[in-house]
Amino acid sequence: MTPLAKLLEAALFAAARPLALDALATLDPEASPAAVFAALDELREHYDVDGHGVEVVEQGGGWQILTRAEYAEAIERAQVAVRPQRLSAASLETLAIIAYRQPIGRAEIEEIRGVAVGSVLKSLHERGLIDIVGRSEGIGRPLLYGTTPQFLEQFALRHLEELPRADELAIALRGAGSAVVAE
User: What span, in angstroms and rounded, lies between the C-alpha atoms of 127 and 7?
Assistant: First the structure.
């Protein structure tokens, strides 16, 4: 491996969150963005070709070294990894509305869900999954909400364009119909 790839490996190993290209580029000020990308590809190939138990994954607006999916169940069973806290159905529903309609205000979310969402918004904000991204031009200039890079990280997405399309969601929900009704 090149020295730059080794440097990126050390940084990705030490970081608890995905590191963006800007952060990786600061490690070696003489390296161009293209050189950093090439070193990331070299590192990714190193883990893939040699069959390591971890891999370099692009998600949440950056890169991170993660356990391969095929080992996740064994790691969870052994309880050696910290699991992210589960979200309630109300939180997931509100988060989905924000993800697909952002930037969106509280009143619009409540109109879609048909219930008050103040406490859910507070909880999602405290968890770092949503943030205030601006204000509407409407009466009172209400706050607008959007998702954060931590949202992308939690759902293993590189960017919002990876969210399932509406037609894909209908197929997925049809398949899980009995589980949804049972709740």
Answer: 31
Per-residue pLDDT tens digits for 20-77: 999 999 999 999 999 999 999 999 999 999 889 999 999 888 999 998 989 988 888 8
Statement: residue 84 has pLDDT above 80: no
Query: Cα–Cα distance between 92 and 89 in angstroms, integer?
Result: 5
Query: Rounded CA gap, 87 and 100, in Å?
Result: 18
- 48 CB-near residues (< 8 Å, 6+ apart): 55
Pairing state between β 104-105 and 130-135: unpaired
> Whole-angstrom Cα distance, residue 45 to residue 164?
28
Residue 93 C-beta-side C-alpha neighbours within 13 Å: 14
The residue count for the chain = 183
Q: What is the C-alpha separation between 144 and 142, in angstroms, rounded?
A: 7
pTM for this model (two decimals): 0.63
